[in-house]
Amino acid sequence: MKKTNINSFHLIFIICYLLFTICTIQSQWLGALIPDFRVNDDSTVRSQGSPDIGVDGNGNFIIVWQDSRNEPNNNSGRVYYQRFNFDGTRLGVNFPIGHDTSGGPKIAVLKNGRFIVVWRAQYIGNRDIYCQRFEANGVPINQPNKINDITVATYTPDIGGIGTDSLGNFVIVWTDYRNGYLYPNVYGQRYDSLGNKLGGNFRVNDVLNTSQAPRLAVNKDGSLVVAFLGYVGGSGICMQRYDRFGNTIGGNQRVDDDSTNKPKGAVDVVSDGNGYFVVAFADDRYIINLSIISYQMYDTSGNKIGVNQRADNGVSDDRGNTKVSMQSDGKFFISWSEYFGTNGVPYGRRFNKNGSPIGVNYVIPVNTNFSNSGNCRIFMQNLRVYSIWEDNRNGNWDVFGNVRSFVNPDSILVSVSHKPIKVKEFKLFSAYPNPFNPVTNIKFDLPKEDRSQKSEVKLSIFDVLGRGVAILVDEKLTPGTYEVQWNAENYSSGLYFIKLTTETGFTAVQKIVLMK
Fold first, then answer.
1. Number of domain units in the chain
2. Are 42 and 65 in contact (CB under 8 A)?
3. CA-CA distance, 442 to 444, in Å (whole number)?
4. Do 324 and 419 share a domain, yes or no?
């Protein structure tokens, strides 16, 4: 009899899933976990690395990396890319771009799926950086364009990053050695949405020959901030803001508040698209060569919010390779590498929009049964954290990735569908199936408020002891009917409670039973 009931639940789930799939509704995937997957599809034992990732408005993503599959001595190789659907389905195969001898790629993906890749190359004896624009299906829009105005035959510029505004205009920054390898500077180049240069290369650092390792964040209106290792009252983490026309806003500013000027590094910067931004970096202020991860928040006027704060919990003695990504609502995620001897492991931690940590840091790869990984890159959107990294679980260096939920990193699947119909009152419908194993559907109505088009909504799961076990929704939502799917595969059988709350004071609680 028990077996029959379980089969019935499975049948109900399948029917509900099919109905959900064919309905004409707008869907956003908040945290569909895509377990660890290998990006490069070659069967060689050659090395792949230096990955980067971009995501379009529908959650589809593209990964670029440096690949030596055709290089017998694991030399620099060539740049490849791979497109993926939002659920992790491959779109085509690994595809090479750029020059035969190229590497260090960075990517920016527009909301419509078009993308821009930038890379460094040794071409006809010269060392330069190039960019190329692509349609969403991967078809090139133009030929590769050289970015740097001055070529240095001995030293290749190091690409810092690329960012785009809401119209497709973009900016690229890099470390430039036109004055010699011992005299690095940070340079940038602006482009319009058609790939035409807007002016020439511009220098970011105020003090000549002192700066390197830039990162940038471009806002929706085209204004931007560049963070870099520089010199303002001593060596440290610096930043420079620009308006949407490329004019500087003030001069270089010091980000770290360490008066001892001890070494800093591995800087990154991100914005919410409207000017609020966060700078994260590796910080040796306590013990040289044993870094912590620090971050500094800024308001839209470029003023510091509070002081430098520590991001990590201190798993190992040394850290680096800092990355930070943020949603438009201000929630952000910081990743870094924890170093255990010569081995590195990517870790990450979540933060709410006021900068407070959510939980503790955790290992980003789902499978940790291997010795070494690193050089992680992240992208956060719609409460999904996309991560990619260099990985040696197969004995050679590959590029691996996964997608985990921001609200519940250990969840298997959390999806939210939205039907923008008029509703008159708040309502939490009965979950179905209930009892369930392991998936149940939770539906609620959200009416329009007179004062706002959106309402802050939180949908949580609690166990019988009142402990929160999952947050399925925690954001401002537009009016309409929502349906949330919770997969409790990683939870024990028993009684659970659904709790729906809104900023206007509405609260509803419902019992559900997980039977395995």
1. 2
2. no
3. 7
4. no
Mean pLDDT of 352-369: 88
pLDDT tens digit sequence for 108-160 = 999 999 999 999 998 766 789 999 999 999 999 999 999 999 988 778 899 99
Tokens of 515: 């039977």
Asked if residue 144 is part of any domain, the answer here is no
Query: Among the three residues 333, 348, 363, which one is the final residue of a domain in this structure?
Result: 363
CA dihedral over 160, 163, 168, 169, signed as positive or negative: negative
Which one, of 96, 84, 49, 88, lies nearest residue 391 by Cα? 49
**Token output for 265:** 């590094």
Domain of 248 in residue numbering reads as 164-363
Do 348 and 428 sit in the same domain of this protein? no
> CATH number for the domain including 15?
2.60.40.1930
Asked if the structure places residue 313 within a domain, the reply is: yes
Radius of gyration of the chain (CA): 24
C-alpha triplet 80, 81, 87: angle, nearest 5°: 150
Helices (H), 230-354: none
Q: Which tokens sit at 339?
A: 């170093």
- The answer to whether position 21 is within a domain reads yes
**Inter-CA distances, 36 with 177, 368, 389, 401, Å:** 38, 10, 10, 5
Q: In this structure, what DSSP letter does residue 259 have?
A: T
Pick the closest to residue 426 from 414, 443, 405 (CA basis).
443
CA terminus-to-terminus distance, the chain: 14
CATH assignment at residue 264: 2.115.10.20
Check whether residue 204 and residue 331 sit in a common domain.
yes
* Same domain? 422 vs 337: no
3-class secondary-structure state, position 153: coil
The reply to whether the predicted model has a pTM over 0.85 is: no
Q: What band does 75 get if pLDDT is binned at 50, 70 and 90?
A: low
| pLDDT above 60: residue 200 | yes
